[in-house]
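Handoff note, outgoing to incoming analyst
You'll be picking up this chain. Sequence as last confirmed:
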Amino acid sequence: MNPSTLVPTRHRFLPWLLLLFFGSGCAALIYEVVWLQLLQLVIGLTTVSLGLLLGTFMGGMCLGSLLLPRLLSARHHPLRIYALLEFGIGIIGIAVLFGMPYVAALYTANAGPGLAGMVLRGGVAVLCLLPPTVLMGATLPAVARWVETTRQGISWMGFFYGGNIAGAVFGCLLAGFYLLRVLNMETATYVAAGINGVVALLALGLSARAPAGASAREPVQDEAERAPWAWAVYVTIALSGFAALGAEVVWTRLLSLMLGATVYTFSIILAVFLAGLGIGSAAGSFLARLTTAPRKALGVCQLLLVGAIGWAACMMARSLPHWPINPALSQSPWYTFQLDLALCLWVVLPAAVLWGASFPLALAAAAGGKDAGRLVSDVYAANTVGAILGALGFSLLVIPGLGTQWAQRALVVTAAVATFVTLVPAFRSGRSQVATDDAPRKTGLWIPALGAMAVVTGLTAVLAWQMPATPWGVVAYGRYVATYGKRLAPGVIAEKDIPPGNDGPDIFCTYLGEGLNGSVAVTQWKSGVRNFHSAGKVQASSEPRDMRLQRLLGHLAALAHPKPESVLVVACGAGVTAGTFVLHPEIQRIVICEIEPLVPQYVAPMFEHENHAVVKDPRTEIVCDDGRHFVRTTKERFDIITSDPIDPWVKGCAALNTVEYYEMCKAHLKPGGVMALWIPLYESNVATAKSQIATFFQVFPHGILWSNDDEGEGYDAVLFGQVEPTQFDVDALRDRLNRPDHARVKESLAEVGIHSAVGLLATYAAQASDLQEWLRDAQINTDRNLRLQYLAGMWLNSYVGSEIRADIHRSYRFPDRLFLGSPARLEMLKRALEGLPPGP
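Most recent structure output, in case you need it:
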């Protein structure tokens, strides 16, 4: 074949390659979502565990990118290599799905605390993620050998990269809004594997018709022959990756507070970020084809990023919190999603486009004597290494240590440093009179270079100094911050400094913390009511209805057991539920498992009066871990397990409401043991409530639902279960509460309006056997579908608690086998449950 005809022949197939990369990116994002969910269920839901998984995922892609052009000769047909890689990814993807139960069993049998436990978590991540991600990372450099290392050929690599990201956007939305919401992880895996198979077959078909790539015919030049100042390009693109992933971590945390931390919010944020990268990559590819100075264009991108990062920070601190939006007015979650998409585009898109454009411009700037595969491999690896360091550094060190304000200052400085790096060649060339494609050919241009550096330094200094802090109202009230408006006092002050009643603000922030796993706050109303906030909403408070629930959760469980000695409390919160066990004389050990270390360290002590100083009690042990992982790995068994996590619509919390989790809890109960947990009826809908209740009753078929109504309306409830059928003797319970050693228990109940054994048991709502018909169509929440977080996340702005309570009440009948006692006492209980006066 005449070499002159090869270029047009190859270009005829380039659009097909773009389609293949779209499919590959789609499958990769589906896998990422599924694998991270599956593996977090095994090794934990903490930020550290997520960091290990993300580091392994991106590290595998970096390794694959580096290895392929160094291990495989350029003489192999690129499309055949690409097809084999896609086949391999699909096969391993299915193997991970079927092998996960064995991995979980192996991990559970060997897991432990400390460094050894962390090494084991990393080993699980490597075992499951490294093989497929190495193959994923190898796909781009494999196809890179199809094109020439000319300006036009390199621009196509940028288009391939953009097509891959476009596919990732589609895969992200497909997984988050359909495959996992409607179906399950198995189906999502099969869809991704099917896409891999189709892509591989298309690649094989194209390889039979298309000529071999440019690198297979052209001799590879000496590795030393590379673009002038190539090191500056690699440093710049590494810094770009560092800032991009660091910003994604910071902005995802802040935007999830403002929009609600649902699985849909995370999908929208990720999709917008990826879409920006894809748009930028396409624009950068087009620019790389036109410009004769790609390094300068790369430098301009970094300079513009200084402003784009400042824009995002300013919008999230000074604009979005004041948009006059009340989510409760939304008639459909799909309207809310459109608004969330608009907000994310407004904040994230400008910077994401610039980061996306940086990659093809870096390819063009670094192009030199090496073959296209090696070129793409090195640039991609540098970018990925920077991304790994950015994601881990900001999530594990910068945010917990310095906060999001300083994190965004660090992002601005990083972009400025990347700009300086691209200016170094211009400065040096002005002194040495060495000309390059980007360097001026005249001497004396070091003065303009220095001037430009001074401008960048000044701009960076101003933006960093003026970087706004996140308003505490965002952490406390999240998506409802605008509805509180002027009721929020500015700044954070000590509780003793709250002014007495006046015409000023109603709510004051007394503590604000940005921790390893989330941001928390403590506020106080002028009335004296204190609130603990997490995930952008109130999670516990000293308000009467919340105090009633928190104490009901603990006292019901303790009084149902004849002699409770050991307790596991999953989620500390304000510590009120854990504090109820301090009052019971039989309790000898209280283990509090809390995912965010700031909560027991700073928040719970601010509620000492309500929680009886539980964190200081000598019987209390604090464990900083997520509850599911602790239950999975501990060898200890308990008389009581209570669970009071944050709302089920918060991403990840559905893992504490699955059949498998309840089975693990049941296995860690001693004979006669009790499990009790909180469920909200507010910010929910009927399908969500049914899913929570039915899932619990599937594991505890003798389970009971206790209601915490608010002035007769549905508010929240307690699910209660024992392995054996439960029975309450009303007279024996009355005698127990009247014992001198239970005086503080009785006083604690009286403080929340429960003055007798009858009053306590009158919170009964229903038992499992009565609700079978109502729960017939309930969707059971399992590890393989995590259905609850998709149901709850869809309807978090719904307030139909009274409707849910009314549905449950229709199934009411007095449970003769549950309550025992004297006829007079039982009659009093019946009348109380029916809302009648006590009688004569």
